[in-house]
Design a protein that fits this description.
CATH topology of one domain: Immunoglobulin-like
Number of helices: 7
Helix content: 25-40%
Strand content: 15-25%
Strand order of the largest sheet: 6-3-2-1-9
Radius of gyration: 56 Å
Structural class: alpha+beta
Order of helices and strands: HHHHHHEEEEEEHEEE
CATH class of one domain: Mainly Beta
Number of strands: 9
Shape: rod-shaped
CATH architecture of one domain: Sandwich
Length: 304
Protein backbone atom coordinates (compact mmCIF):
# COMPACT_ATOMS: atom_id res chain seq x y z
CA UNK A 1 0.00 0.00 0.00
CA UNK A 2 1.29 3.48 -0.91
CA UNK A 3 1.21 5.91 1.97
CA UNK A 4 0.99 9.67 1.75
CA UNK A 5 3.48 12.10 3.22
CA UNK A 6 1.06 12.81 6.06
CA UNK A 7 0.97 9.11 7.01
CA UNK A 8 4.77 8.94 7.09
CA UNK A 9 4.94 12.15 9.14
CA UNK A 10 2.37 10.78 11.58
CA UNK A 11 4.44 7.62 12.02
CA UNK A 12 7.58 9.67 12.67
CA UNK A 13 5.91 11.92 15.23
CA UNK A 14 4.32 8.92 16.93
CA UNK A 15 7.76 7.37 17.34
CA UNK A 16 9.14 10.68 18.60
CA UNK A 17 6.21 11.18 21.03
CA UNK A 18 5.08 14.65 19.90
CA UNK A 19 1.46 13.82 18.96
CA UNK A 20 -1.50 14.80 21.07
CA UNK A 21 -3.94 12.25 22.50
CA UNK A 22 -6.34 12.26 19.51
CA UNK A 23 -3.53 11.87 16.97
CA UNK A 24 -1.92 9.07 18.94
CA UNK A 25 -5.26 7.25 19.11
CA UNK A 26 -5.59 7.66 15.33
CA UNK A 27 -2.11 6.19 14.74
CA UNK A 28 -2.72 3.27 17.09
CA UNK A 29 -6.00 2.50 15.32
CA UNK A 30 -4.19 2.45 11.97
CA UNK A 31 -1.47 0.21 13.43
CA UNK A 32 -4.05 -2.25 14.70
CA UNK A 33 -5.63 -2.51 11.24
CA UNK A 34 -2.57 -2.22 8.96
CA UNK A 35 0.61 -4.27 9.42
CA UNK A 36 2.48 -2.29 6.77
CA UNK A 37 1.84 0.98 8.58
CA UNK A 38 2.97 -0.70 11.81
CA UNK A 39 6.24 -1.59 10.06
CA UNK A 40 6.72 2.08 9.10
CA UNK A 41 6.25 3.13 12.74
CA UNK A 42 8.73 0.50 13.92
CA UNK A 43 11.24 1.64 11.32
CA UNK A 44 11.05 5.19 12.68
CA UNK A 45 11.43 3.87 16.22
CA UNK A 46 14.57 2.00 15.14
CA UNK A 47 16.04 5.11 13.52
CA UNK A 48 15.25 7.32 16.49
CA UNK A 49 16.50 4.74 18.98
CA UNK A 50 20.04 5.94 18.30
CA UNK A 51 19.21 9.22 20.03
CA UNK A 52 18.16 7.39 23.21
CA UNK A 53 21.27 5.20 23.25
CA UNK A 54 23.62 8.17 23.08
CA UNK A 55 22.45 9.65 26.38
CA UNK A 56 21.98 8.07 29.75
CA UNK A 57 19.00 8.55 32.08
CA UNK A 58 19.11 11.73 34.19
CA UNK A 59 17.09 11.92 37.38
CA UNK A 60 15.65 15.44 37.83
CA UNK A 61 16.31 17.25 41.07
CA UNK A 62 13.51 17.23 43.68
CA UNK A 63 13.02 20.98 43.26
CA UNK A 64 11.94 20.40 39.66
CA UNK A 65 9.01 18.25 40.72
CA UNK A 66 8.06 20.81 43.38
CA UNK A 67 8.05 23.58 40.77
CA UNK A 68 5.85 21.47 38.50
CA UNK A 69 3.37 20.79 41.29
CA UNK A 70 3.30 24.48 42.18
CA UNK A 71 2.74 25.48 38.55
CA UNK A 72 -0.10 22.96 38.21
CA UNK A 73 -1.68 24.26 41.39
CA UNK A 74 -1.60 27.87 40.14
CA UNK A 75 -3.04 26.93 36.79
CA UNK A 76 -6.04 25.20 38.38
CA UNK A 77 -7.08 28.13 40.60
CA UNK A 78 -10.46 29.55 39.65
CA UNK A 79 -10.54 33.25 39.23
CA UNK A 80 -13.50 35.37 40.38
CA UNK A 81 -15.89 36.17 37.53
CA UNK A 82 -15.68 39.64 36.07
CA UNK A 83 -18.76 41.72 37.08
CA UNK A 84 -19.67 44.58 34.76
CA UNK A 85 -21.58 47.62 36.12
CA UNK A 86 -25.26 47.67 35.22
CA UNK A 87 -26.43 50.38 32.76
CA UNK A 88 -28.96 52.90 34.11
CA UNK A 89 -32.55 52.39 32.91
CA UNK A 90 -33.48 54.47 29.83
CA UNK A 91 -36.02 57.29 30.38
CA UNK A 92 -39.27 56.93 28.41
CA UNK A 93 -39.54 59.14 25.30
CA UNK A 94 -42.27 61.87 25.40
CA UNK A 95 -45.33 61.06 23.42
CA UNK A 96 -45.95 63.39 20.45
CA UNK A 97 -49.18 65.47 20.28
CA UNK A 98 -52.17 63.74 18.77
CA UNK A 99 -52.40 66.21 15.86
CA UNK A 100 -48.80 65.60 14.85
CA UNK A 101 -49.09 61.89 15.26
CA UNK A 102 -51.98 61.66 12.85
CA UNK A 103 -50.35 63.95 10.27
CA UNK A 104 -47.03 62.18 10.02
CA UNK A 105 -47.04 59.15 7.85
CA UNK A 106 -45.14 56.17 9.03
CA UNK A 107 -42.45 55.40 6.49
CA UNK A 108 -42.27 51.90 5.10
CA UNK A 109 -39.64 49.73 6.67
CA UNK A 110 -37.27 48.39 4.04
CA UNK A 111 -35.40 45.28 5.22
CA UNK A 112 -31.82 44.97 3.98
CA UNK A 113 -31.08 42.01 1.75
CA UNK A 114 -30.02 38.95 3.58
CA UNK A 115 -26.29 38.39 3.51
CA UNK A 116 -24.88 35.13 2.19
CA UNK A 117 -22.93 33.22 4.86
CA UNK A 118 -19.19 33.56 4.38
CA UNK A 119 -17.26 30.45 3.52
CA UNK A 120 -15.70 28.85 6.57
CA UNK A 121 -12.00 28.46 5.77
CA UNK A 122 -10.92 27.70 9.34
CA UNK A 123 -10.55 23.99 8.63
CA UNK A 124 -8.31 24.72 5.67
CA UNK A 125 -6.13 26.98 7.76
CA UNK A 126 -5.97 24.43 10.59
CA UNK A 127 -5.10 21.59 8.23
CA UNK A 128 -2.42 23.64 6.54
CA UNK A 129 -0.92 24.65 9.87
CA UNK A 130 -0.99 21.08 11.17
CA UNK A 131 0.65 19.73 8.01
CA UNK A 132 3.33 22.41 8.03
CA UNK A 133 4.00 21.78 11.72
CA UNK A 134 4.17 18.06 11.15
CA UNK A 135 6.68 18.34 8.33
CA UNK A 136 8.76 20.80 10.29
CA UNK A 137 8.92 18.19 13.05
CA UNK A 138 9.86 15.47 10.55
CA UNK A 139 12.60 17.68 9.11
CA UNK A 140 13.91 18.32 12.60
CA UNK A 141 13.82 14.59 13.35
CA UNK A 142 15.70 13.75 10.16
CA UNK A 143 18.32 16.39 10.92
CA UNK A 144 18.74 15.09 14.48
CA UNK A 145 19.08 11.49 13.28
CA UNK A 146 21.66 12.47 10.67
CA UNK A 147 23.64 14.44 13.23
CA UNK A 148 23.44 11.56 15.70
CA UNK A 149 24.66 9.06 13.11
CA UNK A 150 27.57 11.31 12.16
CA UNK A 151 28.48 11.69 15.83
CA UNK A 152 28.27 7.94 16.42
CA UNK A 153 30.44 7.18 13.38
CA UNK A 154 33.01 9.72 14.49
CA UNK A 155 33.14 8.33 18.01
CA UNK A 156 33.36 4.76 16.71
CA UNK A 157 36.52 5.74 14.83
CA UNK A 158 38.22 8.05 17.33
CA UNK A 159 36.70 7.40 20.79
CA UNK A 160 34.92 4.02 20.80
CA UNK A 161 35.31 3.64 24.58
CA UNK A 162 32.91 6.53 25.24
CA UNK A 163 30.03 4.84 23.39
CA UNK A 164 27.54 2.44 25.00
CA UNK A 165 28.37 -1.24 24.63
CA UNK A 166 25.70 -1.76 21.93
CA UNK A 167 27.19 0.94 19.68
CA UNK A 168 30.84 0.03 20.00
CA UNK A 169 32.33 -1.40 16.82
CA UNK A 170 33.18 -5.08 16.85
CA UNK A 171 36.95 -5.46 16.91
CA UNK A 172 38.22 -7.02 13.76
CA UNK A 173 40.86 -9.68 14.05
CA UNK A 174 43.04 -9.78 11.00
CA UNK A 175 45.35 -12.70 10.53
CA UNK A 176 48.57 -11.76 8.84
CA UNK A 177 50.56 -14.58 7.35
CA UNK A 178 54.27 -13.96 7.50
CA UNK A 179 56.28 -16.30 5.38
CA UNK A 180 59.58 -17.05 7.02
CA UNK A 181 62.13 -18.41 4.63
CA UNK A 182 62.99 -21.98 5.41
CA UNK A 183 66.45 -22.51 6.80
CA UNK A 184 68.87 -23.88 4.29
CA UNK A 185 69.01 -27.61 4.17
CA UNK A 186 72.00 -28.91 5.96
CA UNK A 187 73.62 -31.99 4.58
CA UNK A 188 72.98 -34.88 6.94
CA UNK A 189 75.50 -37.58 7.68
CA UNK A 190 75.43 -40.74 5.63
CA UNK A 191 76.47 -44.15 6.93
CA UNK A 192 77.07 -47.32 4.91
CA UNK A 193 77.52 -50.96 5.91
CA UNK A 194 78.67 -53.72 3.56
CA UNK A 195 76.86 -56.90 4.51
CA UNK A 196 79.10 -59.76 3.39
CA UNK A 197 80.40 -63.20 4.40
CA UNK A 198 84.02 -63.79 5.42
CA UNK A 199 85.36 -60.58 3.81
CA UNK A 200 84.13 -61.77 0.47
CA UNK A 201 82.05 -59.84 -2.03
CA UNK A 202 79.19 -57.92 -0.41
CA UNK A 203 75.73 -59.39 -0.80
CA UNK A 204 73.88 -56.26 0.44
CA UNK A 205 74.74 -52.56 0.95
CA UNK A 206 72.99 -50.88 3.89
CA UNK A 207 72.74 -47.05 3.79
CA UNK A 208 71.49 -45.04 6.80
CA UNK A 209 70.60 -41.33 6.87
CA UNK A 210 71.76 -39.83 10.17
CA UNK A 211 69.07 -37.11 10.24
CA UNK A 212 65.97 -39.20 9.52
CA UNK A 213 67.36 -42.61 10.57
CA UNK A 214 65.78 -44.14 7.50
CA UNK A 215 67.76 -46.94 5.88
CA UNK A 216 67.89 -48.51 2.45
CA UNK A 217 69.13 -52.03 1.63
CA UNK A 218 70.43 -52.62 -1.86
CA UNK A 219 70.71 -56.16 -3.16
CA UNK A 220 74.11 -56.66 -4.82
CA UNK A 221 74.73 -60.28 -5.63
CA UNK A 222 72.69 -62.58 -3.45
CA UNK A 223 69.47 -64.34 -4.32
CA UNK A 224 67.02 -65.94 -1.91
CA UNK A 225 66.45 -69.66 -1.93
CA UNK A 226 63.02 -70.92 -3.07
CA UNK A 227 60.53 -70.70 -0.19
CA UNK A 228 62.95 -68.66 1.92
CA UNK A 229 63.37 -64.97 2.78
CA UNK A 230 66.29 -62.80 3.87
CA UNK A 231 65.64 -60.96 7.14
CA UNK A 232 67.70 -58.01 8.47
CA UNK A 233 68.61 -57.83 12.19
CA UNK A 234 70.15 -55.21 14.52
CA UNK A 235 72.49 -56.68 17.14
CA UNK A 236 73.75 -54.42 19.94
CA UNK A 237 75.28 -54.81 23.38
CA UNK A 238 72.66 -52.29 24.62
CA UNK A 239 69.84 -54.65 23.66
CA UNK A 240 69.09 -57.98 25.35
CA UNK A 241 68.44 -59.75 22.06
CA UNK A 242 68.56 -59.08 18.30
CA UNK A 243 65.83 -56.83 16.87
CA UNK A 244 64.26 -57.55 13.51
CA UNK A 245 64.35 -54.71 10.95
CA UNK A 246 62.08 -56.57 8.52
CA UNK A 247 62.30 -58.85 5.54
CA UNK A 248 64.44 -57.72 2.61
CA UNK A 249 62.24 -57.52 -0.44
CA UNK A 250 62.79 -59.20 -3.76
CA UNK A 251 63.51 -55.94 -5.62
CA UNK A 252 66.92 -54.28 -5.85
CA UNK A 253 66.12 -51.68 -3.13
CA UNK A 254 64.28 -52.05 0.16
CA UNK A 255 63.61 -48.91 2.29
CA UNK A 256 62.54 -48.90 5.92
CA UNK A 257 61.98 -46.17 8.61
CA UNK A 258 62.17 -48.53 11.60
CA UNK A 259 65.50 -47.21 12.90
CA UNK A 260 63.74 -44.06 14.18
CA UNK A 261 63.05 -45.89 17.46
CA UNK A 262 66.76 -46.26 18.29
CA UNK A 263 69.24 -43.68 19.50
CA UNK A 264 72.18 -42.64 17.34
CA UNK A 265 74.78 -44.29 19.56
CA UNK A 266 73.06 -47.66 19.36
CA UNK A 267 72.75 -47.46 15.58
CA UNK A 268 76.36 -46.44 14.97
CA UNK A 269 77.82 -49.18 17.20
CA UNK A 270 75.45 -51.98 16.24
CA UNK A 271 76.12 -54.98 14.00
CA UNK A 272 73.70 -55.52 11.13
CA UNK A 273 73.14 -59.14 10.13
CA UNK A 274 71.11 -61.05 7.55
CA UNK A 275 69.64 -64.51 8.19
CA UNK A 276 67.77 -66.93 5.99
CA UNK A 277 64.25 -67.47 7.33
CA UNK A 278 61.11 -69.11 6.09
CA UNK A 279 59.04 -67.17 3.60
CA UNK A 280 57.74 -63.98 5.25
CA UNK A 281 60.30 -63.88 8.05
CA UNK A 282 60.89 -65.51 11.42
CA UNK A 283 57.65 -66.60 13.11
CA UNK A 284 59.10 -66.13 16.60
CA UNK A 285 60.60 -62.64 16.23
CA UNK A 286 64.09 -64.11 16.80
CA UNK A 287 66.61 -65.50 14.30
CA UNK A 288 66.06 -69.17 13.60
CA UNK A 289 69.46 -69.60 11.94
CA UNK A 290 72.94 -68.16 12.19
CA UNK A 291 73.67 -64.94 10.29
CA UNK A 292 75.20 -65.44 6.86
CA UNK A 293 75.98 -61.79 6.12
CA UNK A 294 77.10 -59.14 8.66
CA UNK A 295 78.55 -55.65 8.65
CA UNK A 296 78.98 -52.43 10.63
CA UNK A 297 78.23 -48.83 9.67
CA UNK A 298 80.96 -46.48 8.55
CA UNK A 299 80.52 -42.75 7.96
CA UNK A 300 80.79 -41.81 4.29
CA UNK A 301 79.34 -38.25 4.30
CA UNK A 302 79.87 -36.13 7.42
CA UNK A 303 76.99 -34.05 8.75
CA UNK A 304 77.24 -30.25 8.38
Amino acid sequence: MAYSEDHIALAAEYALGTLDADERAQVETMMAADDEFTAIVHAWEYRLGVLNQMVGPIEPRPVVWENIKTAIGHSTEQRAPLVLPEAPPASPAPEPPAEVATAVETPAVVEPPARQPAADNSNIVLLSDARARRWRNVASIATAVAAALIAVLGMQVYQPDRLPEALRPTPRIQTVEVKVPAPPQMASGQYVALLQRDAGSPAFILTVDAATKNFTVRRVGSGAEPGKSFELWLISDKLPQPRSLGVIGGSDFTARPVLAGYDTGTINAATFAVTVEQAGGSPTGQPTSAPIYTGKLIETVPAR
